[in-house]
Amino acid sequence: MEQAVTVFGEALVDDFSTRKVVGGAPFNLARHLAGFGLPVTMITRIGDDANGQLIRDEFARFGLQASGLQTGPGEATGSVHVEVGADGSHCFTIVPDQAYDHIDSAAALAASEATQPAIFCFGTLAQRDPRSRAALHALLEQTQAVRFLDLNLRAGFVDETIVFDSLQQADIVKVNEEELQQLFKWYCHTCPDTVNMECISVDTECRAMMHNFSLSALVVTMGSRGALYLSADGAHVADHGATMAGAFVDSVGAGDAFNAVFLLGRLRGWTMEQTLARANAFAASTCAYAGAAPQDLSCYGQWMEEWMRSGTTDELFSAPGVTG
C-alpha cells in the first residue's frame, strides 16, 4: 500500500482583483504530492462561498481525499489580497479570521486516524488562532508519523512562541535563508551570514539548533543557489540548483514544489543527492508558469518518467484521479 501523507493548514485564494488563484503553502504541497500519485489527506477548512468552491474544484482536479476538508457555515474561505506594483512587485494582505482559523479538532482527528500517514506536514500560519492551533496539537499528539515543518514565517501573523513550540514538535524542518537568519537571532549565540551556507559558523549554529530542538534534519532552500540538507547523524548534502527552462514568470509556490519532491524522495528511498537535485529542478520548473500549481497535470508523470530514465530503481506509479 502506498505510504500516505497528511497535510494540515490553510487553503486559500489569492485575490488579484482581476483574477483569483488558489493557493496556501500547505495546499500547494498537498496538490503536488497528489499530482505525483501519493494518497494525501489535506486537513483544512473553507466557507460555503465562491472561493470555497474554487478550492473544492482543486480537490477534485488533483484527486485529493475530501475527508479532511471541513466547511464552516457563515465563515469566509481564506483569502489574501494581492496588489501588483508598477515594477512587478507584490504587496500581500493576509485577511484575518478566516475559515482555516476554525479547524475542528474532532473532525481533523477522524480524518487523520483513517489514513495513518507516514509523514505529517504542518506550518505556522494556520496556528495564528487558538482553535486551529488546538486542532493541530491534537493531531500531533495522536500521530506516529514523521513530522515535517515548513516554517513559512509571515510577518505579523506568527510570533516566536508559536515558532518555538512548532520546532519542538517537528522532526524535519525546512526554512529559507531569511527564516534561518531569524532562527539564528532567536536561538543561537551568533548570527552568521548565510550568503555562504558552506561556512563552518553556519554549519555549527545549525547543528546546535538542531540538537537543542531534537531535530533529525534541517533543510535550507536558497533560491537559485539550490538547497542544503543537514542531518543529526552528520550528513551535509548540497545541491546548487537547476537552470530554469523557459522564461521566468513568478516564483509563487516554488518552495512548496521543492517540499513535495523532497518528501517524495524520502518515501521512495532516493539518495539525498538525487532528492535535492530533483526537488530543485521541479521547483525551478514551477517558475515558468503563473501560480503554484500547473494547469496541465500530465507534467507529474513526465517528471517521474525522466527520473526513471536517470537511474532510480523506483517503479513508476500512476496518479489516481489525475488526468491531463
From TrEMBL:
Gene name of this polypeptide: scrK
Organism: Pseudoduganella plicata
Classification via SUPFAM superfamilies: Ribokinase-like
Protein name: Carbohydrate kinase
Alphabetic keyword roster: ATP-binding, Kinase, Nucleotide-binding, Transferase
Carbohydrate kinase PfkB domain location: 14-293
GO molecular function (one): kinase activity
Record bears the keyword Nucleotide-binding: yes
A Pfam match: PfkB
Entry's family note: Belongs to the carbohydrate kinase PfkB family.
Record's keyword annotation contains Transmembrane: no
Gene3D superfamilies reported in the protein's UniProt record: 3.40.1190.20
PANTHER family noted in UniProt: HEXOKINASE FAMILY MEMBER, PSEUDOURIDINE KINASE-RELATED
